[in-house]
Amino acid sequence: MTLPVRSAVALVGPTASGKSALAHDVALESAGEFEILSVDAMGVYRGMDLGTAKPTREEREEVSYHLLDLVTPSEEFTVAQFQRAARTSERRIASGGHGALYVGGTGLYGRAVLDDLDIPARYPEIRRTLEVRAANDLRALYEELVELDPLAASRLEATNERRVVRALEVTLGAKRPFSSYGEGLLSYGPVRVVQVGLDCELAVLDERVERRFRSWMEQGLLSEVAGLLRAPEGLGRTARQAVGYRELLRHLEDGEPLEQCVLEAITQSRRLARRQGRWFRRDPRVEWFRDVALAKRRLLEVLSRANGFVRD
Known about the structure:
By secondary structure, this protein is α/β, with parallel strands linked by helices. It has three domains: 8-118 and 189-200 and 283-303, P-loop containing nucleotide triphosphate hydrolases (Rossmann fold), CATH 3.40.50; 124-181, Histone, subunit A; 202-276, Helix Hairpins, CATH 1.10.287. The chain has 13 helices and six strands. The protein has helices at 19-29, 57-62, 79-95, 107-114, 124-148, 150-154, 161-174, 202-219, 221-230, 237-240, 245-254, 258-281, 292-303, and strands spanning 8-12, 34-38, 65-66, 99-103, 194-198, 286-289. A six-stranded parallel β-sheet has the order 3-2-4-1-5-6, with helices on both faces. Helix 2 links the parallel strand 2 (34-38) and strand 3 (65-66). Helix 5 packs across helix 7 and helix 11 runs antiparallel to helix 12 (258-281).
């Protein structure tokens, strides 16, 4: 699938590495020529602002942002839904003749869009039935997968309940083997969109994570979480798992000491940064930069070309 935009580039890397500020700077200097597509699994939720490092109201007035505030925190938002929303945003950007700057640290969502992954649909009723069966006899479920899709079964552990259930859910619901959707995240194809990685020393990253989270607390993150909790719809399963939010929820719901929850949120944010770094490091197509000025130069170089991405 050819991306329907004039030019495109992706800025990736771990949380707190400085991606958002750099992307905003590039888009701002372009005077509207480049628009930002946020690739953040939690940025899609309305009201989850501080803890997801969303651009401020003033920044959104300066630069066009996409894929933010799509649903309420009570809803579930799948990778497939995100992929479809991204395609809609790409068409809007194309209609204005502008370039697209993808920025974010949610690797799975990024690959779904940048690599145009074939994402299996979800079948909730089948899944619920399988989860009940898995709780009673996971081994039997795995053996059924071996019979229906031996290739998929060979790629996962028989004890991995989540993956066994998902593989069978798709195989039964789509009436085609789960493995027929391809190797997906297990392989890396040709470069469709240039990816610029913003690197940072771990010690510096750790310090930034703590400073940023404490700044969010001063700006009212606890009040933001409390407000979400009071909303009639409440918080859905996915929104509740957002790093920073889930720790503060333990203070609000279970009475755990606030400072203890803050320290845990900082620890989990640092772990998240390391997981994100490992995810992007596995992709040999990412071009890494520690110098922000050099990263900016590369972004502008790609975006300024008439064909700033490799077409299929």
